[in-house]
Automatic annotation (TrEMBL):
Organism: Actinoplanes lobatus
Active-site residue numbers: 149 (charge relay system), 183 (charge relay system), 342 (charge relay system)
Alphabetic keyword roster: Hydrolase, Protease, Secreted, Serine protease, Signal
Signal peptide segment: 1-20
Name of this chain's protein: Type VII secretion-associated serine protease mycosin
Biased composition (Low complexity): 403-470
UniProt-listed InterPro entries: Peptidase_S8/S53_dom, Peptidase_S8/S53_dom_sf, Peptidase_S8_Asp-AS, Peptidase_S8_His-AS, Peptidase_S8_Ser-AS, Peptidase_S8_subtilisin-like, Peptidase_S8_subtilisin-rel, Thermitase-like_dom
Pfam family for this entry, one: Peptidase_S8
Hydrolase found in the keyword field: yes
Homology family: Belongs to the peptidase S8 family.
Listed GO CC annotations: extracellular region
Amino acid sequence: MNKATISRCAIGAVALGAFAAVGVLALPTGSADWTPVTYGLTAEPEQIVPDVVTEAQPARVVSTTIDEDGRPVVTVKKATDKASAVKLVKDAQETENAVGVEIDAPVYALGIPTGTDPYRAQQWDFTKIRTADAWQRSTGSGVTVAVIDTGVDATHPDLGANVLRGYDAIANTAGTSTDGNGHGTHVAGTIAAVTGNGVGVSGIAPDVRILPVKVLGANGSGSMADTAEGIVWAADNGAQVINMSLGATTKVSAVSTAITYARSKGVTVVAAAGNSRQQGSPVSYPGADEGVIAVAATDSADKVASYSNAGAYVDVAAPGSGIISTYPTALGNQYVSMNGTSMASPHVAAVAALLKGYRSSLTPDQIETALEKSATDLGTAGFDNDFGNGRIDAAAALATITAPTTAPTTAPTTAPTTAPTTTAPTTAPTTSAPTSAPTKAPTTAPTTAPTKAPTTAPTTAPTKAPTTAPSPSPTVVKVKPVITANVTGREVVYGTTTTTTFTVKANGKAWPAKPVQICVTEGAAAEQCTNANTTSAGTVQVKRTAKASYQLVLKAVATTTSEATTSAPVTYKVRAAVTVVRTAKAKLAVTLTGAVGQPTEIQQKVGGTWTTVGKYTASATPVKVTVTGLVAGQTYRVVVPAGATVLGATSAPIVA
């Protein structure tokens, strides 16, 4: 299978003709009581396909179908020209049992190395989230956590004993995991480094087993289609918690469907919130997907990290700066310090595993509630976009859970130690390890259960029963509508009329003539909403002339019989367009379609370097300008730099 990988900066793929199948996956039988996310089935193929499709910028068409056993099947095909891409989309829409068609998106690891120093030994995060106290109730025994990442070094001396055989979604092979990047190994060590062995670092959930799933390459990036594949594989192969320390700025609904499927099997899904605070905190997926616990990062002073995304989708925060953990031996250091929401996310996944190990019947929603209710409130009182519901506290989260009826499995007889006191590895930190780990594992069940049941009934009874039973209050069961869109987002040329069709259903049926709000956020402006009603078919069509990049959502208004709900955002990015034509010797005609006032540069190629030789500002759009005074025979181009709300454009080179 020729499955294209995705680099940290761009998709890397070799074109094989107009289009070539690059991945089809069918996985073990799924649960029958889940509902897939539907998307892109009724859209015009041209609305889904990017404006530019070439060998250098291929389109990877992702389709999702449901097989007869209820499993999501993800198919990826690549096109190297627009006509082929349109045909692939149309064919996918017409495929039997199709639930979604869309364009793939790149996804990236969200960790930031702090440098080359591998000797940082102090795990300040353990004290901050009260890991030692949490171990008195649970060490995560019997729980499997999938690390969907760059792979995991299964031979690492401080991690290998806790690593299961995994899956490579890029190569579609199962077996012993490797990690050519280090990101996944670092994440896995935070969760379940071997603890109490007198070596290296400790893991937050030391008795957890790690299920490695590789979806990112050695360069730390990959595709959302592979991510969807990895989620389904993990759910079907014993994962009870999934950690995804990765992110993409484009929502891919195949991933949303995979997450819904995993949750239907009782899997708690945790993901990083993103590291782009300095770029305005663009929404990061899968962190912002429904049902995912999105994690922001904090530092040792309980301040939000300077890189950590802010947003309404952030659920909780966790330590993410200066986190020491395991690293592949083959890459030169067994331990390194890293920063990122990638490092924060496994803290939450590990505590989720402690909760699951303490009480195996907990559902994903119950685990999320325990984490949020027990979190330490930071920043603005109550929920805020920086910390969500607060920074997690492992011991407090466990305290919210009723003790199991039988004693939880105790920790290994060799308890976690506070420092590598004897034979530390040659690359181990030279300073002492954290002093917060317990020196002795719990040997008995929690002592909070009652010691003796009552032996007699109450000595008195009511002398007379009430003459009438109280009248029960009627309970109104409210339906929660489900809103889908025909497109997840597009990049369009300035002035294009976009059409977005939302479909609203309740209990699987169209939701006609119901009140909704169409809400638009353009650039950095505040959200603007207008009232509307669904059609008799339960749809709402929104047409808009694209003059700035914007995000569109549809909100179903709460009524006496229904709950309020909001669609996933549809994001339109608006780009300027520029063409250049030689009309005479040393004379060019430039046509610019873009925002009024957007600057335009005339550049000449001199000695292999592009140099700006002239500038002008568009006074209208579209605007046509004749450029003269050029040097005949020289190569020129026109560049429109990106503005705040309109992406830039560069013309093809032309000889004057």
